[in-house]
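Sample intake sheet
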Amino acid sequence: MFWQPTSLQEAVRLLADEGGMLVAGGTDVFPALVDRPSPAGLIDLTRCTELKGIAIGADAIRIGAGSRWSEIARASLPRGLAALQAAAREVGSVQIQNSGTIGGNLCNASPAADGVPPLLALDAAVELVGPHGLRHLPIGDFVLGNRRTARAADEILSAVWIPRRLEAGGSAFLKLGARRYMVISIVMVAVTLVPGPDGRIADARVAVGAASAAAMRLGGLEARLIGTDPAGCAPADLVMAADVAGLSPIDDVRASAAYRLDAARELVGRAILQAWEAARA
């Protein structure tokens, strides 16, 4: 069966009554099946206008879960969201960016999902709608592990909310892969830094993806960056081995776990310098 609801309310009702798989851009649905049978029912969300658009409010920016990556990349957003827009330009290929959505990227919950680290580094939250109402969850509480989220079976991810308190900072996103496009990340990092009146870091967010079952923040490093001025430092001097010791990368065909740890340390250092340069511009 195939349904195309024209409103979020109708989609929630269909999901509760009929079940089935939710589809937005659909770029990951069939590749993820491998040799398993196709789902018995699909609910296409592309006609639900409530899932579209980007709105800048007084305290937060709302990105509809159905927003395409190409739309996010082209949007006029505060400079603090530059890392998210950089990640949008790294998702798959241009064709994938024109179809894939930010909500699908989060619900798919791949450890290498490009959208998760920059959203973690922005303190973003997801909005979930179901038969029993609406709730919000921080990104870190929503993405639980490899292909696992906190979305209930009868809920739809309707939006991503980004607080505006970090928008005046500088941010950076770096991704390491075997080639430029159409590649699964070996490791990726996102950093958001906010300068204080003394010219030093007043607030810091650092997230690493593709090096554990779910992208994660480096809280110890964040705390250590507060009150510092990293300008002129070498990347290797900014990040210690202990800062990435909490990551749990795997060995696979793309890279060894040891290589991922080394790469994460180097990329985090580079991203800190890029974000700090942007913050002081």
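Comment: The two ends are 53 Å apart (CA to CA). Residues 218 and 262 are 15 Å apart (CA to CA).
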